[in-house]
Amino acid sequence: AAMRYLPYFCRGEVVKGFGRGSKELGIPTANFSEQVVESFPSDLSSGVYCGWACVGNGDVHKMVLSIGWNPFYKNIKKSVETHIIHTFKDDFYGEILSIVITGYIRSEKNFSSSEALISAIQEDIEEAKRQLDLPEHLKLKEDNFFHLPEGKTVSH
Fold first, then answer.
1. What whole-number distance in Å separates Cα of residue 54 and Cα of residue 132?
2. Is pTM beyond 0.90 here?
């Protein structure tokens, strides 16, 4: 049931997660609030996806998204974590994150160690970069969804 929902458009506020992505893994992720996570289709397959992400009215960047229960951390709640393939100077908690999920990379799996998890995420990032350069993914980067209606402009 992964592909049936794609592309999937979603927007929500960035909230503080478990603080694990950046601190333990060196891979910062943005977490959506529970309300946003609960709005995802319940039968959207857990796993790793790729797509486009935009913070506030900033630029649109490639991203990798994980949907699931994070078996490595034995979560009981579903989480949706977005790793934007871009280096930001500051945290953006409280900002609006807009994402379009365009492709499916792999199913969720458990890892024996955080090293194994990190190397899998690095592979996911490389795969995301490859997929997102394909025309059918690339065209969604320009989607009007990324232009927030308030008409606020951000100086580049």
1. 15
2. no
